[in-house]
Amino acid sequence: MAQAGAMAFKMSTFETDEYRFPKIPDSEIIKSMNILRDVNLVVAFHSENDELILDYIEEYQRKNKVYPRAHAETRPPVTETSSTLKLLEFAYWTKAKLHIVHVSHPRTIELIDYFKSQGTNVTAETCFPYLLLNTNHLDEFGPLAKINPPLRESKDVEQMWQYLEEGKIDFVSSDHAPWKKEQKDKGRENIFLSQSGLPGVELLAPIMYDGTVAAQKMTPIQFAKVMARHPAETFQIKNKGKIKAGYDADFMIIDPHQTVKIDVKRFRSKSKFSPFNGRTLNGKITHTIVRGKVVFDGEEITVDPGYGQFVPGSAIESNVMS
Questions:
Q1: Which among 63, 83, 175, 320 could disulfide-bond with 49, CB atoms 3.0 to 4.6 Å apart, if both were Cys?
Q2: Pick the catalytic residue: 156, 175, 248, 250?
């Protein structure tokens, strides 16, 4: 897969699905870290403690504690931090490039920061729901706000913002999970029956612009770094992430004087739901340009399917792969 151009590999310490997204045993994690270190690719992990979570869920189900907030209560911060700590220690000894995806809690960032100070090659991202929602929104929106790891307390959200502003969080992602609404609605009476995840790829840039630049929490340059430059650098994406000669002319143009209202009916994803539905955002994307060509005019896609090109990972040029 590395020879074919895979850019990175994502695995999990929690078994969401035995085929689609299985839990990877520790012995296989170590092996994969050694292999990916040798081909200079990132190994990314969904970091949650499988044993703790499954035990908590079994206990809650047995006691019929199936209300929306039970999702967060059965995935307390220790289920994220304990798993991350293991991965960090593995990366310390193997010298692998580790990336922790969708960090939800500031304690995780503190552990990552500590291991960075010891020379561990590790980066981290959070997702926009962890910055814009908290556990109270589980009560409000039910399964529509169910994601893994879960939403955290408001004080934790405030600390995550501080770490983002301080540069301790490398970038922000969407963790786009395009479930159909009926798959979420299964959890109306029992939160554990709902699928986890939100549609986010269409919301990521406008909702984060509204929450950062428009809210005067970041400059446009800082916004560009956490949304474009740092992801490109983390995953070694060639000719992406900078405005520089020789790089692809990829741009998003945002008019700060316009507003846009989130309307799930207009989502291009098959997922037509969002806890952010109806929210008015400051700033509107007026153009998206890929390789110098306008592909989105603010309302519609302006190129035919097939305009996109495969961008291979860095291992394809590595001497190790030859």
A1: 83
A2: 175
